[in-house]
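lol ok so funny story. i was supposed to be doing the assay writeup but got distracted and ended up predicting the structure for this chain instead. priorities right. anyway since i did it might as well share w the group, maybe its usefull for someone
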Amino acid sequence: MSQRPTLLKLLELSARRPQEAMQTVKAMQLSSPVAWQVFALVLVIELIFAHILGLLLGPVETPEGALGPALALNPVLLGAIQGCLLILMVFGIHWVGRAFGGTGRLEDAILLMALLQFALIVLQAFEILLIVIVPALAAGVLLFNIFAFFYLLTSFTTALHGFTRPPLVFLGILLTGLGAIFALSILLAIIGVTIPGTPPNV
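and the output, tada:
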């Protein structure tokens, strides 16, 4: 029986050969309950780091009626919203990938998101360190985080579903994401949620 990879090994593979990291996760054949438990644990850790980062950055001015301050003061609400968004991403990766001929399991899509978020947590920890030591470099790290997110998500999704053309996978992620944002904006407008930067209805 082969030994399961350590978390540090998965992080190393994610940085150097992300598709191999996802193949390693798939080979573990974890059950759905275990996958969801891993997902929940990573979400809690991510919220803790996000809270620390918010304390270091200090309060940010937001338009009156915006959701930002309410979320910052209510970590449970923030966690619920973020968890729902990540779950939607999990099912989106699974369903859209399968619709285009992918072969990935839902359990592996859950683990994909958990591994992706944990890798971003490591980058977030590095970002916190930079903000403390050299605040001027924080913006550069934020840009790198955006690049890393799309690079890892594309690589993981390619390996998850057995695709062979990462550029097309990246394009599919962008189009799916834009469609989801458009649908979400319509839903928020219907229920009357204020989006920062938009004028109120008169």
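The chain has one domain: 7-191. Residues 7-191 form one domain.
back to the writeup now i swear
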